[in-house]
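Suppose a classmate hands you a notebook page containing two proteins, each written out with its sequence and a corresponding row of structure tokens. How would you begin to make sense of it? This section walks through that situation. The first entry is reproduced here exactly as it would appear on such a page.
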Amino acid sequence: MSSPIIYAAIYFIIVVFGSCFYFRGKVKNVDDFTTGGKTLKWYMVACGLALVPLGSGHTMNLWEASAGLGCGVLFWPVIVGGIFLPLATLWFGPWLRELNVKTFPESMEMQFGPAMGYLQGAVNTATWTGICMAETLATGGAIYGLTGGAIPFKPWCIILAFILIMVYVIFGGVLQYSIVSTINATVMIIGSYVALLMTGGWLAANAMGWSGVAEHYTALDQAWKLEIFRFSPDLFFQIIIPVAVLHITAAAVTQGVYVPIFAAQSTREVRKATFLASCVNGMASFPWVMMAIVAMSIPSIAAGGAKLSVINHALQNLPAPIVGLLMVCLLAATLSTGSSVMLGNATVIIDVILKRACFPNMKPETQFKLMRPMIIICGLAACVPALVAPMIFPIFLWCFSFGIPMFFVWLVGMVWKCSKPAAWITIIVSYAVNFIWTFATPSWAPGPFALNMYPVTLVSIVLIIVLNAILPGEAGLLKRHRAAQASKAA
């Protein structure tokens, strides 16, 4: 049982702790730490960006969901990799770089004033601490499962998860994150597909084959689970729409997503990263879902539940080195998301909340000194609740839904019109709807529309469009910025 852990431990000692040793003392100022001096090449941007939204959602949560929804859950990575990441690299990220901002809240401040920037920074930090708590739990769960329960989940697996996430970025900041992510992305894709290939070999050796898997689901009248393009209402309303809305909106307004984008050498490098980032993100989930489909066709593994199905399959049926490789792949996904969120949160707290709101005369040297302690504080803010309570799904959606009105207000303010009254009314009303639908869902809300994201999205879109049409405001920020730049050039 210890062999897989030894292989994984060797990997993380070499890559993660080795990067800590390498970068210690090489990062000299806050710009080096938060943007890497804007030195990242396109492939580093691609790998870092591909891993930011990956996390437990594309791995553990997705293989668990496949037990009920089948291969159709693969629409999740298709949407994130095929829609959200291109939007981030071709439009949203380049827009922010064009404005020459260091954080996302600064762009909100440029549109609607300091108070809106502070609100966005505070809300972003608070809600994404909840997401980071989920990644800490997932990382701890991976450690627990792959040690066969030899290490207690609480507190030790959670504490180990906290330590691993911390060392991912604590010494080198975005440079360390980007280099480790580039290595991890490569290992994760190769390793997970090798494990899937070994699973195919195991199926063939046990005279079961893929036909045996298909026969198992056919006997249960669940052959549809093997079809990707089967559009059921559950798949449409529980996976496709929520993933599209929550990633395109909530993820687009979080600082963590733009960590590698702000650190790129140029906007051209960001745009060049589009194809690789989309491919890495889109390909990453396939092996985990297919291994889960196989695992749940084995009665002894299915009896243990979907949550640990892939882990139990690996422990029982694959060689120890492959199990260790799978552990590396799984932890690479969860650690990358957790570390990018913590780095993004620490940057927003120091640059927006402390410096811009509280201490405008704070020197860059002071900001730099505060970065590492703040990352630890952000990590503890996610780790401590994880020790005492599991994530609750409605609260998880509640956290994400705070970003929906922010996104539509930001997008309209960038490309169409900036109206402060319209922005504030939209956000206040949408947040009220979010609270009501999360904690006092109306009894008349039908089926999936009882989820808070549906009314919050509808209210946000309608209000920001209608109010901007009737209330006074300025031209969109991008139009004004480009006009000012053209005027300077003339």
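The notebook's second entry, a different protein, reads as follows.
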Amino acid sequence: MENNRYVLLSLLLILVGMLAACNSDRSSLVTSVLGTSSENAGDEVITVNIAYGNEPDEFIDQAANKWKELAEERSDGRLQLNLYPSSQLGSEKDVTEQAVLGSNVIVLSGYDYLMDYVPDIGILTAPYLTDNFDDLLYLTSTEWFKDLEDQLAEYGISIVTKNTIYGERHLMTTEEVLTPDDLAGKKIRVPNNNMYIETFEALGASPTPMPLSDLYTSLQQGLVDGAENPLPVLEGSKTHEVANYLAQTGHTKIISPWLAGTQFLETLPEDIKEILVETGEEAATYGNQIAEEQSQEVLDQFKEQGITINEIDKTAFKEKTQSVYQSFESWTPGLYEKVQELIEER
């Protein structure tokens, strides 16, 4: 009997120890997920994961590295930014869902993607909406845009920075394109996105959604006749090696928001949140300059490589794509006119 009592006591002590260990592990896991760890509030270190699909050394990656440098320096080490390029944390959709659930992540996104939450915001990626990036960026400073941000917040999504210029999209093809008529029946690779599909249908092409990683082989095999993207992306995907004609259509100007979960942002001390936003905007400005330089370098490189480069008359392209603005029934009636009025009032 005494031996049995000893065994039971021993088992009870072991069980208590295991429960304590589990609680400790659970506490560590929670700390890891929230991205904070400290022995006291004054020494708190807040970790934020920065996720994006671009490859290392591209201008987005260089901007992210600048963000990390500025944020950690200005916060005296209270902020720690971990960078995850090449979609290491998952697709844009997956990471956004993680953010909504409260994960300590910020992800580079697109306003066309955010149409799934707030339809009107997608107009910022519509063809020939503005003549320059300044007007496009100005729209994000208006009360109209603030209302769209408030609607996003209802889904648990907050925009951290709004001033990242992703680039102007052009068209590279295996046969020369000078007018929309030249696109008739041409299979053009586009992202799997309704905005780009509608745009190239309006231009008379046959939009063909596929991953960018499949583009090179598809061009080689004649499955598509061309692709559209900013110049650095066309060069990075080696499109120019199998398609020798560049039409500078400039059909879409893209600015990209960095998104976080509203729930996570609300856990941050106010000064840390300010540092995160301010340094993010500074890093974006730094990256925008690099993007502009890279675009010019790629254009010069294409010329040296014998690519036929055409600065086409965009008037016909713009007229053809006006039908896109009637393609989205979920948009507020008169949305295009409203945006143009905001630009004129600037």
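A careful reader of the second entry would note: The beta strands are 36-37, 45-51, 79-84, 105-108, 157-173, 187-190, 206-209, 226-229, 245-261, 308-310.
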